[in-house]
Structure formats: C-alpha cells, structure tokens
Design a protein that fits this description.
The complex is a heterodimer of chains A (about 200) and B (about 325). Chain A has seven helices and eight strands; from the N terminus they run H-E-E-H-E-E-H-H-H-E-E-H-E-E-H. In chain A, strands 1, 2, 3, 4, 5, 6, 7 and 8 form an eight-stranded antiparallel β-sheet that branches. Chain A is globular. By secondary structure, chain B is α+β, with helices and mostly antiparallel strands. Chain B has two domains: about 130 residues, Beta-Lactamase (2-Layer Sandwich), CATH 3.30.450.20; about 160 residues, Alpha-Beta Plaits (2-Layer Sandwich), CATH 3.30.70.270. Helix content of chain B is about 45%, strand content about 20%. Chain B contains eleven helices and twelve strands. Chain B has a five-stranded antiparallel β-sheet. Chain B has a five-stranded mixed β-sheet with strand order 7-8-6-11-12, with helices on both faces. Classes of the chains: A alpha+beta (about 200), B alpha+beta (about 325).
C-alpha cells in the first residue's frame, strides 16, 4: 500500500487502525446478527474522482444490479460511507434481522437502511474508538434498491477531486449475504487524519 | 456559566422536537414538553415507567431490538417517515390542509455513554416532518403526472412514439438476454388519407381516437400499444410466439372492421392492415424488428388490405 500524502509510518498506522476497527466491528456485528461475520482486511487507497467508477466497479461490478445506501459521518473526520449490497443476498436480510412480519417494499427499504446503519456504525465506531475521536452520523438514505452502481455513482455529481477510500468486504457465516463498504473521506479529512495518526503513533 | 445546566435543561424541555430517554430496562428517564404535549401524557406519570407498558401500541419487538442494538454497538440509529411514517401516533398541525392522518416523524436514537464509555441510556430525538412529507408527496404526484403526460399521445391518449420505442428497446434487450419470444405488430388504418380528404380532419381525428380505443380494448394485459406515426400504431408483445401474435392480429382486425365507426349522424366503415415480425437470434436491434414488421405491413396493403401478414426471414440457404 502506498498513499502519497502520508509517510510510511502514517500509512502503517492507518492500516493498523483500520485492522483493529474491523476486528471490533466484526465482534459487535456478530453479537447483533447471531452469526459469525467475516470482514476482509481493509484496503486503503487514494482515488481521484475520475478513477472512482473504475475502482468501485473492479470491486463490486458496475453492471450488476445492487442496492446501495449512503450515510455521512462528521466531526474530526468528515466523509460518506456507501454500503453496497448484492441483490442475491438482500432476500436474507429479513431473516438476519429477525423481521417476522410480511416484508413489503417499505419494510425492505427499512431493512436495507437498518443493516447499512449497523455496518457503517460498527466500522466508524471501531475507527473512532481506536483514534479516540467522537464521530457523529447523519441518517442513512437510499441511493438505489436495484440498479447498477455505475448509474448511481456519477463523477460529474461529485464535488471533490481526491478522496481517501477504505474498502471492506463483509460476509456472514452460512449465508449468501455479501456486502461491500466504501468509506470516502474528502480532501480536508485527508489532512485532518494526518494529525490524528501522528497522535496515535505518539501514544503507542 | 453557573446557569448553563439550567439553560440546557430548559432548551431540552422546550425545543421544537420530541426528546425522551430510556435506560437499559426500557424505563423512561426523560420526557420533554414536546412529548408531553403531543402524547397528552405528563412526565410525572411516565418517569420510571416501562416505555412499552406506557405505550403498548409501539412496535415492541422491532423497537426493542433497535434500542438494544444502540446499547450493544454504541451506535446512532435512525427511523425515517418514508419507510415508517411514525413511531408515536400524534396529531399534526395541519388537520385541515394536511391530507395525512397523523404526524410524520423522523427519529434519531443516540447512545448516551457514561465515563467508562458504556452506553447507559438511549436518547430519542423525534422530529415532526409532516410538512416535508406533504411537500414530497405533492412533488411525487406532480412528477408522476408529468412523466405520464410526457409519455402520452395527446390525441389518442395512447403511449407516444418515444415511449413505445423505449418499451420495445427494453423488451428487445430482455428477449435477447433470456432468449425469450418477442413479437411486434405494426398496424395502419387503411385509406386514412381518404377519410381526411372526404370528411375533414376533425372526422379523421375522431377515427384515430376510436381506432386507438378499440385496439386498446383488444389487448392482453402484458401487451404495449403506442401511436407510432400519423395513423400507425405499434404493439409490443413480450414473451409471445407467432401463434399468439396472429391470434391478436385477427382479433384487432375484426374489432375495427366488424362495426363501422360512428361519425356525426352516420357511420364510416374502417379497416386496418397489420404486419408481424418476430425476435429470433441474429436480429441485430429493435430497429430491425420495426423494419421487418413494416415490410410485412406493406405486403398486407399490397395484397388487399384488411388483413395481416407475417415477415418471412430469408431462409438460411
């Protein structure tokens, strides 16, 4: 991994923070879902807005229909998280989240939002606890319930040029459910994070 | 600064949003004025009470789980009126102009941690978003009307050319992807120019409207009909093999020819000709299907009108 604006120590620290955060997130999610939740080693990189679609496609597949939810986080770090859930696993959400009633389209949307909020919360809290930051969240909102990602993520609607992207894959033991979580932190947070990482390194 | 805690208490109590707090045992530990006013329940009777005993109408299982998740994950949680219109059934401030039955609500569940970092309480903030929801519903209605209007032909009320072509394009893509059958019919009113010339354009318009109506009445539920040009109509028949298309053609032909079209005091006998084309491997695009149906229609005209013909693909020699 090589992220241009960060020193080698900072880059290592960032990866370490992300790894610890995923461990914590996995534990919390497992307690809620009642199943073992497997999180990939987070992949961190700097992307330009032009590369965004290509980068995300490589990961998720740009043509495949997916459900996607976005949610903002703010305070010492500002950015947006996008949770992408493959259609094939979306049917299992009701069971995973213990919904008993008939799942109509509103309930389905609510489930998507709920699960996205849990994933984002678990991961962001993991990061903020490790970094001793206190982050707030906006309410999650639906980007799509069934469209290819390339139609949802259009670079001309994005107002930044560079972003730090943290990607994590997530699957649940014994289920088809698969999800990708993308955390974007825009330019100003890239600088803010540098200071936070230095503090983290000093505290070690 | 000595007054700050008092000031905060005052603001929490009087702010224009519902704020209440529950502990791990779901007991109510704070209930602000907004909640008092809208629920009609005083905090004195509610404090220390179980939330679900006090409000048995709350969706207990779902909400318990949601609150517990905040305790476990130390995480914010949310509800939105768009999926769940309200948590508490409160009256709203637009009893006359609203058009919705009760207050629409967005809620935030916030973890309240103690010094050890454990979540001790969950704080609910409940926002009245009734106005927003009404504007959004009006906007959605309007968007739907506009979309619908932009897809319709003004004279006949059928789908217009752009929309029926889009429908054909997407059905073509689907047929290609799943190797499904797909038939296309082009139909055209026989000697329509003569109607216009002999009876005037108003009569012509009336004939177009009546023919459109009869065609529309003759369709099956899954068929798509649109006005393609002056007196030309397109019927897209998803998952329909040739026999089905032929049956439909004959039914439509009869529906028009059987009974003259009432016009002023009299009635005008009208007929249509039809051409059928079929999706098959090797058809490049939907435009080719239109072209082939058009050729078939031309042959129907040539061979006497008031009939359908089928496009014959050149046999693979």
């Amino acid at each position: 991994m090589n992220i241009a604006p960060y020193s080698e120590d900072q880059t290592d620290a960032l990866q370490e923070v992300a790894n610890i955060a995923m461990g914590q997130a996995g534990d919390s999610l497992a307690r809620i879902m009642g199943h073992f939740v497997e999180l990939s080693v987070p992949r961190i990189r700097l992307v330009t807005v032009q590369d965004l679609v290509a980068t995300v496609s490589e990961m998720v597949g740009a043509k495949e229909d997916v459900a996607a939810v976005r949610q903002a986080f703010y305070n010492q770090l500002r950015g947006e998280a996008i949770v992408v859930i493959k259609q094939s696993g979306a049917d299992e959400l009701a069971e995973l989240m213990d919904y008993e009633d008939e799942v109509d389209s509103e309930a389905e949307e609510e489930l998507l939002l709920e699960v996205a909020n849990l994933l984002v919360g678990a991961i962001i809290n993991g990061i903020s606890e490790t970094l001793e930051a206190e982050l707030g969240f906006s309410a999650p909102s639906l980007m799509t319930t069934g469209a290819p990602l390339e139609r949802v993520l259009t670079p001309d609607k994005l107002t930044w040029s560079h972003a730090l992207l943290v990607e994590v894959h997530l699957c649940i033991e014994g289920h088809k459910f698969k999800s990708h979580l993308l955390l974007f932190m825009a330019e100003e947070s890239i600088d803010a994070l540098r200071g936070i990482l230095d503090n983290f390194i000093d505290d070690l | 600064m000595a007054d700050t805690p008092q000031l905060l208490d005052f603001i929490v109590d009087r702010t224009h949003a519902g704020i209440f707090v529950v502990d791990r045992d779901m007991r109510i530990v704070l209930w602000n004025q907004f909640m008092e006013v809208h629920s009609g329940r005083k905090r004195d009777e509610l404090l220390d009470q179980d939330l679900f005993d006090a409000f048995p109408e709350l969706p207990r299982k779902w909400l318990t789980r949601k609150i517990n998740n905040v305790f476990i994950l130390k995480n914010f949680s949310f509800t939105s009126w768009e999926q769940r219109p309200y948590l508490f059934k409160f009256p709203h401030n637009r009893p006359v102009t609203g058009g919705v039955d009760c207050m629409r609500q967005d809620c935030t569940l916030m973890p309240v941690k103690n010094d050890a970092g454990e979540v001790e309480y969950v704080c609910f903030t409940l926002f009245d978003v009734t106005d927003t929801s009404i504007y959004q519903m009006q906007l959605e209605d309007l968007t739907k009307q506009l979309r619908d209007a932009s897809n319709r032909d003004g004279l006949t009320g059928l789908h217009n050319r752009r929309f029926i072509e889009e429908t054909l394009a997407s059905e073509f893509a689907r047929a290609q992807r799943h190797d499904h059958a797909l038939s296309l019919i082009i139909t055209d009113i026989d000697h329509f120019k003569r109607v216009n010339d002999e009876h005037g354009h108003l009569a012509g318009d009336e004939v177009l409207r009546r023919v459109a109506q009869r065609l529309n009445d003759g369709l099956r539920i899954s068929d798509h009909l649109g006005r393609y040009g002056g007196e030309e109509f397109l019927v897209v028949l998803p998952e329909t093999p040739l026999e089905g298309a032929e049956t439909l053609c004959e039914r439509l032909r009869q529906a028009i020819a059987e009974e003259p079209i009432p016009l002023g005091d009299g009635a005008l006998p009208v007929s249509i000709s039809l051409g059928i084309s079929q999706f098959r491997p090797g058809v490049r695009n939907y435009e080719q299907l239109i072209e082939e149906a058009d050729q078939a229609l031309y042959r129907a005209k040539e061979t006497g009108r008031n009939r359908y013909t089928i496009f014959q693909p050149p046999s693979a020699a």
